[in-house]
Amino acid sequence: MADRPVLLLGGTAEARSLAADLHAAGIPVVSSLAGRVRDPRLPVGPVRIGGLGGVEGLVGWLREHDVAAVVDATHPFARTMSEHAAGAAEQLGTPLLRLRRPAWQPSESDRWEQVADIGEAARAVADRTVAHLAGVDPSGMDSAGRRLRVLLTTGRQDVGVFADNADAWFLIRVVDPPTCPLPPRHQIVRSRGPYDLSGELTLLRENSIDVLVTKNSGGDLTRAKLTAAAELGVPVVMVQRPPEPALGTAVHTAAAAKEWIAHLNA
User: Fold this and answer.
1) Which of 15, 24, 83, 113 has the fewest CB atoms inside 10 Å of its own CB, making it the most exposed?
2) Hey, how many other C-beta atoms are within 10 angstroms of the C-beta on 16?
3) At what angle do helices 79-92 and 54-64 cross, to 10 degrees?
4) How far apart, in whole angstroms, are the C-alpha atoms of residue 124 and residue 200?
């Protein structure tokens, strides 16, 4: 596959690191970004932005560009793109690698409520909202008559599932502003990681946050919010990752991905 390119799917930090490594090693690579972020951090080397047209569109692109291998380094919750990558690779017999950062694991100091998906997270927040207003907050604090204050860091596309909760207050942290319906009581904070512990502690304290809602994205760029929540005794509603496609090899680091690609070249 000496001169045939690798298609690298995803705008994650791991994807950018791998693109830089492959570029430095002289291995042709094209990075493909979904285009959901207005001003994405771009990797080294050639980049395409926008959808590929599902499985059939991706099959056509792989054939047209004589792609040697596909590396799926998308966000752990980008389930549709991962399924499309697996489907296209299976059709063509193209080698497929999944580059995924390890999921976060709770420690003894963490107070996690682990839920299967974003809908279950919304239901968990609704239950906590009712309990909070009734003065039986799970933390044991006297919360009677005070609205539950939620830090929501699940991404702008999932905010809409919380829109029916009129009794809690939401601090919604996003990179780009949401375009879906929003909860009646909310504040938008636009920012992009990485975040440090000091800043996350300040955010939780100054906004009197009662519960953090997030996805199990893994990695170090946003881990500080979990450490801050544990230090302050703030419970976390943690959305678990969707199942991965069965096809392909999985690695956790850009270095391991580069080694896999080098082995294909050997």
Assistant:
1) 24
2) 20
3) 50
4) 23
**CB 98, CB 248: distance < 8 Å:** yes
Q: At a CB cut-off of 8 Å and minimum separation 6, what does 85 contact?
A: 9, 58, 70, 72, 74, 96, 245
Q: Which residues contact 89 (CB under 8 A, 6 or more apart)?
A: 70, 95, 96, 247, 248
Mean pLDDT by 10 residues, the chain (266 residues): 85 92 93 78 87 91 95 92 94 95 93 97 95 65 69 94 95 94 96 94 97 95 95 97 88 94 81
Task: Report DSSP letters for 36-68, one per residue.
Answer: -SSSPPPPSS-EEES---HHHHHHHHHHHTT-S
User: Residue 32: phi, psi to the nearest 5?
Assistant: -120, 120
Query: In the sheet where 186-190 sits, what is the strand order?
Result: 112-115, 236-239, 211-215, 149-153, 169-174, 186-190
131: its two tokens = 């309990």
What does the alpha-carbon distance between residue 141 and residue 149 come to, in Å, rounded to a whole number? 13
Buried b (16+ CB within 10 A) or exposed e, 247-264: ebeebeebeebbebbeee
Virtual torsion, Cα 61, 63, 65, 67, nearest 10 deg: 100
Place of tokens 């291998």: 69
Cβ atoms of residues 22 and 5 within 8 Å:
no
Instruction: Provide the residue type at 214 as one letter.
Output: T
Give SS3 for 31. strand
